[in-house]
């Protein structure tokens, strides 16, 4: 089993896109030995810059991601894209839309796109995104763009995996900047007012700038607010320049690092312990047994949990 992972990782490192895709799938599925595989991959990571792109539905995130990819690709960067799809795995509509919009960039050399459904991720969405980031990093991607709608808590967690976060707004939102979750505004490193071809773009820039000035801390008042027309590519080169400058200046979220790693270890542990317990219980029939006892009112769920905790020497 270990050998199997090892050879796939070696092929991936040699540049096999097929093995890259399969590795991601196997890790997402939590195939046997996935933790070992990630252990092997981890030392190969740490090079890629991760950029979160978020904002309200339809703000133009995919279109902008496409433009950014082309621009960065032209400059010689190898790009990975993670598109977090807000729809359920069953509808797949938006997924198809994103695929179509990103079709052009997907044919570029050195661009690899991976879609991810909000629901159904075995290890949780944010952990899945973190795993995929690491695998793409080990593959040799320089920049990894993560597109996600900034609506749910899960999605907010996903962008927290990024070193830099772009929040995409559109004109005419007025107070509607609040349409984006408050938590998202706080993690923005760059604000982008997209669809600047529409009325009210300058007003939107002014609103956001005013909001940033209101917040007392110095960092917020230095956050850039840019206009783009993703549909035509206007403003995208300037955005790229600022993004690259931020990276060079080391203005990335190292402040989060500690929290992020702590959270990652805890959530991995939580999920893995639960998964192991569940599969062991499924196999030895203890869970079924306990359920029957509860139905017969011989036991209650609380004492069953208490017994398990004692058994695991957690208490
Ligand atoms: N007028 C105008 N339309 C734009 C611009 N950028 C994107 N659009 C259009 O806005 C619509 C939504 O664009 P997407 O890129 O799919 O937006 P999104 O934020 O990825 O959407 P979701 O992923 O569904 O939340 C599309 O019809 C785009 O063609 C722009 O700069 N100006
Ligand atoms: Mg999209």
Assign an overall shape: globular
CATH superfamily of the largest domain: P-loop containing nucleotide triphosphate hydrolases
Overall mean confidence score, pLDDT: 85
Query: How many strands?
Result: 7
Distance between the ends = 35 Å
How many helices?
A: 15
The portion of residues assigned to helices is 40-55%
Describe the biggest sheet? 7 strands, parallel
CATH topology name of the largest domain, in short, is Rossmann fold
Class from secondary-structure proportions: alpha/beta
What's the number of structural domains?
Answer: 3
Widest sheet: strand ordering: 3-2-4-1-5-6-7
Alpha carbon gyration radius: 22 Å
What ligands can be seen in this structure? guanosine-5'-triphosphate, magnesium ion
**Residue windows where pLDDT falls under 50 for at least 5 positions:** 88-97
Summarize the entry for a quick read.
With 315 residues, the protein is α/β, with parallel strands linked by helices. It is 52% helix and 13% strand.
Structural overview:
This protein is 52% helix and 13% strand. The chain has helices spanning 2-13, 17-28, 34-41, 61-74, 93-101, 103-106, 125-139, 153-159, 182-185, 201-214, 218-221, 236-248, 257-284, 286-295, 301-311, and strands spanning 49-55, 79-85, 111-117, 143-149, 164-169, 190-193, 225-227. The longest helix has 28 residues, at 257-284.
């Amino acid at each position: 089993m270990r050998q199997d992972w090892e050879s796939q990782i070696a092929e991936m490192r040699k540049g096999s896109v097929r093995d890259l895709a399969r590795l991601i799938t196997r890790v997402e599925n939590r195939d046997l030995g996935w933790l070992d595989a990630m252990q092997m991959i981890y030392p190969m990571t740490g090079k890629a810059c991760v950029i979160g792109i978020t904002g309200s539905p339809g703000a133009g995130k995919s279109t902008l991601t496409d433009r950014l990819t082309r621009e960065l690709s032209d400059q010689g960067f190898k790009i990975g894209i993670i598109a977090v799809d807000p729809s359920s795995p069953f509808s797949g509509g938006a997924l198809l839309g994103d695929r179509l919009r990103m079709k052009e960039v997907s044919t570029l050399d050195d661009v690899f796109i991976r879609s991810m459904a909000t629901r159904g991720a075995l290890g949780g969405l944010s952990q899945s995104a973190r795993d995929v980031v690491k695998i793409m990093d080990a593959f040799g991607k320089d920049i990894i763009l993560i597109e996600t709608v900034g609506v749910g808590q899960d999605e907010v967690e996903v962008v927290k995996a990024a070193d830099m976060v772009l929040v995409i707004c559109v004109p005419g939102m007025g107070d509607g900047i609040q349409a984006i979750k408050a938590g998202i505004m706080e993690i923005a490193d760059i604000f982008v007012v997209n669809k600047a071809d529409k009325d009210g773009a300058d007003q939107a820039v002014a609103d956001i700038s005013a909001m940033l000035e209101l917040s007392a801390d110095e960092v917020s008042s230095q956050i850039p607010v840019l206009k783009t027309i993703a549909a035509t590519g206007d403003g995208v080169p300037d955005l790229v320049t600022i993004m690259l400058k931020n990276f060079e200046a080391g203005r990335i979220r190292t402040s989060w690092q500690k929290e992020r790693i702590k959270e990652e270890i805890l959530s991995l542990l939580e999920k893995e312990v639960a998964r192991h317990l569940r599969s062991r219980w499924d196999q030895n029939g203890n869970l079924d047994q306990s359920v029957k006892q509860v139905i017969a009112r011989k036991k209650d769920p609380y004492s069953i949990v208490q017994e398990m905790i004692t058994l695991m020497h957690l208490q």
